[in-house]
Amino acid sequence: MNAEALQSLKTWFQNYVHSCSLSVQEDQRNITIKQEHTHQVCLNTVRIAEELRLDQRETRLAETIALFHDVGRFSQYQQYKTFDDSISVNHAVLGAKLLVEHNVLQDLPKHDQEIIVRAVTLHNIFSLPKGLDEKSLLFAKLIRDADKLDILRVVIEYFEQDEGDRAEAVALGLPDLPGYSQAVLACLVRGELARKDALTTLNDFKLLQLTWLYDLNFKCSLRMVEERDYIRTLAEMLPRNKEIAGAVEIVRNYVSGRLKIC
Ligand SMILES: [Fe+2]
């Protein structure tokens, strides 16, 4: 893929997002959040691709995946006014379908088209299926890291805002109660990814974000977590007690441990 092809895909995306504009201010805010998220995921992707020493063509392919990974979010929100897939539609599958139905990728080599559609489809799956070819696996891992890194930013910014100013769709409508689920905390302690359907409160949502660090594939992604101070920032937003502090320490040690291994 050359630079012009990527540029014309970016133009298509901008026009598409513009066509999804909504008249209610709160709705449009949710659309803008996803637009900015896409931009940041593109930046994360290029950085990871550079650190992995991908060539220019592969980097453009990775950036195209980043550009389109959440393309389904816009029509999901238009139709259902939520980002919660469990009560609406799988936005990754919807996005992949949209790319095919609108022939968005038609000028790209067939093999690139397949990798993009596959990576978009798999970007939000709990765990990647076995048997993916080497290239599909690389690009799927890359978008999953770039995406998680930016969702951490979005979630932190959400909690840094005053309650009345928050875009509620970000936190899936979970109640802001002082408690948290032992099942979600146990995942953080065991080094496992928590499932979204286990969430009961906003604190669980914060704990879930921390469990995502166990699912990051590349060392440079973990380095970005450290650079951006995501663990400390999220930990400060959680209830202060011994069991939370202990669980946070486990994930902190996990990240620094992986960064020490050459
Ligand atoms: Fe997504």
Quaternary organization: single chain
Fraction of residues in helices?
A: 55-70%
Main sheet overview: none
| CA gyration radius, whole angstroms | 18 Å
Whole-number average pLDDT? Answer: 94
List keywords for this structure.
single chain; 262 residues; mainly alpha; 12 helices; binds fe (ii) ion
Written description of the protein model:
- The chain is mainly α and 262 residues long.
- It is 66% helix and 0% strand.
- The protein has twelve helices and no strands.
- It has helices at 3-19, 25-51, 56-68, 71-80, 91-101, 110-122, 134-160, 182-190, 202-211, 219-227, 230-236, 242-260.
- Helix 1 (3-19) packs parallel to helix 3 and helix 8 packs parallel to helix 9.
- The longest helix has 27 residues, at 25-51.
- It is globular and about 55 Å long.
Secondary structure elements and their pairing?
Blueprint: H1 3-19, H2 25-51, H3 56-68, H4 71-80, H5 91-101, H6 110-122, H7 134-160, H8 182-190, H9 202-211, H10 219-227, H11 230-236, H12 242-260
Helix pairs in contact: 1-3, 2-3, 2-4, 2-7, 3-6, 3-7, 4-5, 5-6, 6-7, 8-9, 8-12, 10-12
The chain binds fe (ii) ion.
Q: Can you describe this structure in just a few lines?
A:
With 262 residues, this protein is mostly helical. The protein is 66% helix and 0% strand.
